[in-house]
Amino acid sequence: MRSYIGLIHKEPESDYGVSFPDFPGIATAGTSLDDARQMAEEALAFHVEGMVEDGEAIPEPSSLEQIMADPANMDAVAVLIPLKSQAKKSVRLNITLPEDVLREIDAYAEAHGLTRSGFLAQAAKRQMKDDGNPGNAKGYALSA
């Protein structure tokens, strides 16, 4: 199980904030240190699951030395936060689509804040779910 460094910040009259230098988009807070750590685990897992669904690469954890070398992090306390969810491995593939369909996919994905891979993965999952084919344990349609 991978762990990432979370930085705990505490200002007077505020909750304990947690941020992740390896994931600039994640920030959470808790009323106590234990609560902040729990919220950080949940926020990290949720964010990584979204990245996987969007087909984005999950960064390797930075070292403590790398993170603390940034002067902006000097006032924070570093803690290891385990990534509890199993990030699924993304696999690169080569597919062929008509050019006009690819343009439509890209336009739709961009308009909805998705990557091309993320959109295609969501569309495939939705189609398999809607088909409701009990062909295997995951409900995927099987064909010969």
TrEMBL record:
Pfam family, any one: HicB_lk_antitox
Q: Which Gene3D superfamilies match?
A: 3.30.160.250, Met repressor-like
Superkingdom of origin organism: Bacteria
From what organism does this protein derive? Rhizobium rosettiformans
Q: What is this protein called?
A: Putative RNase H-like HicB family nuclease
Instruction: For the region Disordered, give the residue spans.
Output: 125-144
Q: Which InterPro entries match?
A: Arc_rbn_hlx_hlx, HicB-like, Ribbon_hlx_hlx, TA_system_antitoxin, TTHA1013/TTHA0281-like
The HicB-like antitoxin of toxin-antitoxin system domain sits at 4-124
Q: Which CDD domains match?
A: RHH_NikR_HicB-like
* GO-annotated biological processes: regulation of DNA-templated transcription
